[in-house]
Amino acid sequence: MAANEEELRKLMMEIRILEGSVNTIQSRLRVVNAALEDNLGAMKTLESVKDEKKGTEMLVPVGAGSLLKVEISDVEKTILGVGAGVCVEKSIESSIKDLKERQEELEKLSNSQQQQLAQLLSTIESSKNRLAGMIEEAPKT
Asked: Angle at the Cα of 26 (from 23 to 28), degrees rounded to 5?
């Protein structure tokens, strides 16, 4: 019986560890999804700006559902964040291209994380079923 109790404890510990991994992946997915939304917003804004003329007034999203009324002074160039707090000046077309590439990478990452999450959830369900079976078979005292 002591061996069976030890096996039950190990299985319960395994389930807890797997559940911790699920929480970690869910957190990562939230970060990736936020980055996807941010990236998409930037692409939409640049797409709408590229056909405008210098001096055109626009409403530019600044986050949290807020807009800023601005006058476009340069319709040729944009400043694009490339990571680690570094920004570079690029043409609008080049910036849109870079953002589309970034979007594709983020989507791949999201899909990968979702697959890992599905695998973990399946493993947890399997382990819980095994645990339930072991508990049913355990001799009653």
From this structure: 110
- Distance in angstroms (rounded) separating the CA atoms of residues 107 and 122: 22
Check residue 116 and give its pLDDT: 97
pLDDT of the residue at 40: 95
Global pTM? 0.80
State in words which class domain 2-130 has: mainly alpha
d(C-alpha 51, C-alpha 22), whole Å: 44
How far is residue 107's CA from residue 128's CA, in Å, rounded to a whole number?
31
Lowest-confidence segment of 21-25, 59-63, 95-99, 127-131 by average pLDDT = 59-63
pLDDT digits (tens, 9 = 90+) for 83-117: 899 999 999 999 999 999 999 999 999 999 999 99
Q: Write out the two tokens for 33.
A: 């999804």
Kindly report the backbone phi and psi dihedral angles of residue 62, in degrees, each rounded to the nearest multiple of 5, phi listed first.
Answer: -115, 5
Structure tokens at 85: 């707090």
CB 94 within 8 A of CB 74: no
How far apart, in Å, do the first and last CA atoms of the chain sit? Answer: 11
Domain borders along the chain are 2-130
**H/E segment holding residue 129:** helix 92-137
